[in-house]
Amino acid sequence: MQTKITLDESEIPTHWYNVVADMPNPPSPPLGPDGKPIGPEALAGIFPMGLIEQEVSAERWIPIPERVREALSMWRPSPLYRAHRLEAALGTPAKIYYKNESVSPAGSHKVNTAVAQAYYNQQAGIKRLATETGAGQWGSSIALAGQMFGLEVRIFMVRVSYDQKPFRRSMMQTWGGQVFASPSNETQTGRAILAKDPNNPGSLGIAISEAVEEAASRADTNYALGSVLNHVLLHQTIIGLEAKKQFAKVGDYPDMVFAPCGGGSNFGGAAFPFFADKASGKRVRLVAVEPTSCPTLTKGEYAYDFGDTAGLTPLMKMYTLGHDFMPPGIHAGGLRYHGDSPLVSQLYHEGLIEALAVPQIATFEAGVMFARSEGIIPAPESNHAIRACIDEALRCKESGEAKTLFFNLSGHGHFDMAAYDKYLAGELTDFYYPEAEIKASLAGSPKVG
Fold first, then answer.
1. Model confidence, pTM
2. What would the DSSP string read from start to end of 349-363?
3. Strand partners, 407
4. 378 secondary structure, DSSP code
5. 47 assigned to some structural domain
6. Is residue 405 one of the residues assigned to a domain?
7. Closest CA to 413 of 331, 330, 311
8. How many helices (H) and strands (E) does the chain have?
9. Does residue 204 lie within any of the structural domains?
10. For position 350, which CATH number holds?
11. For residue 277, what are the domain limits?
12. How many structural domains comprise the chain?
């Protein structure tokens, strides 16, 4: 009865998988302020050309540079686990597997793209990176990657997470990152927001505005993003590619794939390689799981919107709650972005993937059950996928179906224990974002496309 399915370092994928090659319709192009499509040159002020080429590519396979594969070998391939104890605790006939991305030095999947982005920026002669982070997993990852490739890293951390997660901040600083609570006094955007509301809790949209402003103002500085954009999801497909090799080793294949979804890199990384099989006729359901407090896919509008609050980014066609959306200070970790990956959004809009929203208390209930069965304390983001997977396993218990279920354990929760403390003390509450407030936020979105 095998529990851990491993691969040799030599089996780290040599290419990333680009889902654009298998999409039935080409991606909607990003637009400029005038509502007209922009070309790659419009991104050259804040991204290196190596990443811009990946952002606009329709090639199915993109080679992973050897130096990136060497960096990835510090923790990859990550193990695939069969959750025997969780299955027994649930009394389900379903088989449950999970990919353990918490084995990275930063404790999450985010490092997979951080090392790639740091590499391409170093190759382009860039000396500094500016970025944002929500729960701190991305900030930790890019701080580590910057250290590995000799880059200075400046991180604008959403204020509510800056206060809730001091040890994530410590990790970033240990790896040499400079961390600022966002909105900050470091940028014009931050100063303007603080002038209106000195107690503003921050949002990913605001933090992105600050990071983009800083990157655009200095020739030696580029912007790095932990999710949403095509090249970021491309780098994360190493998760699903490894998982497919591991399933083949034990002669199994998932009926359903679950992953948390905030900006989309977690879901895209786990699910896109399986979408390649779906596109060629294989039956597999791909489910993105988000919080009811930030229900981008399930309650948002499919429209062109800015990726940030100040409107500094190009307009992207995506499910959005409006770039002025201010998420509540909940413990869903990084799943609090107002928009979603344009690729994930388009696939959902075309009915090729599924999405569901789960409430906060139920996710922590699932995370505690998982920890008591499998031993690993999951990150709050991961708990969303665990909740959806457990619910499906319980449906299998009722129906007698022996489905194979797979979810991405995107990271561990060792730096999120304050959230578990609140759950165990009965102090967490569920929050369902009001329809009226979503409509009010969307009213400010640009009317183009």
1. 0.94
2. HTTSSEEEEE-HHHH
3. 98, 258
4. B
5. no
6. yes
7. 331
8. 18, 15
9. no
10. 3.40.50.1100
11. 66-107+231-442
12. 1
